[in-house]
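Escalated from tier 1: magnesium ion holo job.
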Amino acid sequence: MSKIIVLMGAPGAGKGTQARLLQERLGLQQISTGDMFRAMKAAHTPLGEEMRAIMSAGKLVPDDLTIRMVHERTNREDCKRGYILDGFPRTITQAAMLEKLAVEQSKKIVAIVVDAPLDILEKRMTGRRNCPVCNEIYNVYFKPPKVDNVCDFHPNAHLLQRADDNPDTARERLITYEEKTRPLLDYYEKSGRLHRVDGTRDPEAIYADIERIVNGE
Ligand code: AP5
Ligand code: MG
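Tier 2 regenerated the structure:
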């Protein structure tokens, strides 16, 4: 049975970093709801402006919109062999929807949480930079590009800082996570589907654990 890999963890824990490695090495599609909402936000439509307000406050986008978007996206051809959810589900309602979706798509849910303490998370968020072309994730403290502020793969692309990576919004995102999303860990733990990995190590060590879990399931 093909799998839905649910990558969980606080903001800055390393979900995107690990999802990109899984996509590259196991050929499973990364579905990042955060990236999808950022693309919507860039469109400057009324819906885009709504996203901008929610995201800059560190709050969650409403469940109904998020759920419809994930449903539509994961029913495409490139998700047939399984896929990685990076940043979904984030509420109990979203998790309930995912149960139905997994049945509908004949897939098995494997939940993995990347655990990292608060002091690390703050530095990971405020130090993060992204390539606007390929979305590669860098960090001024932990993973600097070869040339300052320039993507290793796109010499003409200057790295950008996410609008929600300022200290105030980052704090709000952490609060939202504790309130709305952390309870989901219990939800997956109780049904015996939660795997924990120590997210304080370097990305390759974390990846090795995750790949072992994915292949073992
Ligand atoms: P989203 O984009 O998902 O943001 P997030 O959950 O806050 O997570 P991040 O992307 O900040 O962190 P990450 O875990 O991916 O870390 P990364 O790998 O980049 O969501 C943004 C917003 O969209 C939400 O606030 C919400 O408004 C909305 N949204 C999204 N999904 C939603 C949903 N389902 N429902 C409702 N609303 C939703 O790594 C962070 C940094 O650390 C990088 O610089 C990286 O280089 C570095 N790093 C990573 N791993 C390591 C390591 N092992 N060692 C050292 N440095 C590392
Ligand atoms: Mg991310």
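The chain is about 50% helix and 15% strand.
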